[in-house]
C-alpha cells in the first residue's frame, strides 16, 4: 500500500508542474525534419539570399556536417511552413543536395515572427543599406502593432523614442535617430537604392535624396547618367530644398549636378606616364614622391624670398 501511495503522490506532483500548456510548448519546440519544398520565404523578406562565396562555404559545411542550427518556421493554413529564420540555411541545404532540413515549428503571430526574422539577420556582417532600411522599418512597425507607438505624429514621445532606441540598441546602431535615417532610405526608388548598395551614392546624400518626390528621383537618375556623376551631400541638400519649395525643375537639377565638386577642385591627378619622363628608370614611386616633395619645398622657399624683396 505504501508503494502504491508513493506512486500516486509522484503523479500528483508531475501534474502540478507539467500543465497542458507546457506540454504543448515542449511539442512545438521539437526539432522536425521538414522537406525544403514545404519551407516558403518570409513575406517581404528584406535580406538578400545570394549564391556568393559565403553561401558556397555554408553549402560545403552542410554536405559534411549537416545543418547544425535548426531553422525556425511557422505553420501555414495549407499545411506547409513559412520560414522565419534560416533562409540562407535553406538555400545552402538545397545547394548541398539535401531534401530536408531541421526546423523548429512555432505558432507565431505576424509581429512576433517579424521581430524574430529581423533579429536573426541583423548580426550578419556586410549587410547592405537597403537590407537594414527595410528590416528596421519592418521591426518598428511590428513593435507599433504590439503597442509601442513609433509614428512621427505620436504625442507619446517617450514610447516612440523607446521603440526606435530599442531597435538601435539591439542592432548595434549608435542611436534611434540613425535607425530612422536608415528607414528614410525606403523612400528611394529602386534605381537609387541600388546605387546606395553599390556605394555609388554615399549614405548621407542618399538620406537627403529620399525626400525628393518619386518623379524627381527618376529625373535625377537620368541627370546622373547624363552628367556621369553622383550628387555630393551639398548638392543633395540643395535639391531637397528646391523640391520642398516646389522649384526643382529639370534645368535646376542639371545646373546643380553640372557643378564641379569641391573634392574635384582640390584633387590633382598625375599619371605615372606623365611623371616617368622626368625621372631615371631606377626611381621607385616612393623615391619619385620624395623628390617631388623636396623640389616643391625648394620652390616654396624661393617664392617666399622673392616676396620679401
From TrEMBL:
The lineage of its organism: Bacteria, Bacillati, Bacillota, Clostridia, Lachnospirales. Coiled coil: none annotated. Belongs to the ParB family. Residues 32-122 form the ParB-like N-terminal domain. Signal peptide: none annotated. GO terms for biological process: chromosome segregation. Pfam families: ParB_N. SMART domains: ParB. This is ParB-like partition protein. InterPro entries: Chromosome_partition/occlusion (IPR050336), ParB/RepB/Spo0J (IPR004437), ParB/Sulfiredoxin_sf (IPR036086), ParB_N (IPR003115). GO terms for molecular function: DNA binding. GO terms for cellular component: chromosome.
